[in-house]
Amino acid sequence: MAAMFRPLKILLPATKHPPVRCCSGFISRMRYLNRLKEDDEACAAALQDGVFFLFHRLSPLLQRTERGTFRPAEVHCTDLQSILERLGSDGSSVKESVLIGCSEQNQAQFCLDVGELDQAAVEEECQGKFVDLRKSFFLLRRAEAPLVAKGQALLRWHQTSGFCSATGQPTQRNQSGSQRVCSSSGIVYYPKMAPVVIVLVSDGKRCLLGRQSSFPPGLYSALAGFCDMGETLEETLNRELAEEVGLEVHSVSYSSSQHWPFPHSSFMVGCHASVSPAHTQLKVDHSELEDARWFSLEEITAALKVKTPPRRGDAPSLWIPPKHALANRLIVEWVEQQRQSEKVE
Q: Residue 236 and residue 288: Cα distance in Å, rounded?
């Protein structure tokens, strides 16, 4: 197979190396988180001083800031217990929260779905709004979106993993929510993600984007496909491009990876791929894609300037996934590569 992984120089701004003290702080947080996952008593104690991100039927609670932007609403334990009790819920339901992270101040972060309560009442108490996660990705900053995505993914996993697939008996979670155990057989279950390869194909001057019929009007993205059992990433990438657009690639470069909560917790592996300029004719499988097209640097540059999706009634214009999406990163990297090539020429 000609396609092989080769290192790709990331063209986004580089992050400065933190001083040793910050590294030590990171190690301390990771070890603290690991202890909370394994020690039920330690996790129960951390709940009392923790901060909570609320969901209502898997939609995160957002608050508008003074600058008009949005952020995930943070509720402290004592405030959350008071709110739950005022709305007629047992304050002990806080124990159903799931651990999702730890702040730089070593404050444990949890998520809790309050879908059994009246949505409007919770919004009024917390001065926020429950927003569908897909829409939230356009409203939150890059550092905040992954946090609510992780929270939703873990909450959904617990909601759908209440019974053992081998015995049919109920499963019980540990305090942190990092695992579930069959009450009969003792089988341990952990949250899982489905591996997906997402690839931006280039012929040297243009990049290839596609869209599914379920996409909003004008939205195009990099091509992606789930890994079949036993496949390598390279094999998945080559198979998907052959199936969906009838292309063979001659080189592949790894970019980066990302957890993606749609539709149900995928692990996205981002790559760049090249095809020969002499073999760019597309044969789109319309059972897989509604459309796939080559786009010029000028078209992609204009699409990157579109900050919000077109409103209903507006003429469809090309736009791409939000900054939090790995597809966006791949497109930005490609644009930077093209600009550097133009400078060299």
A: 15
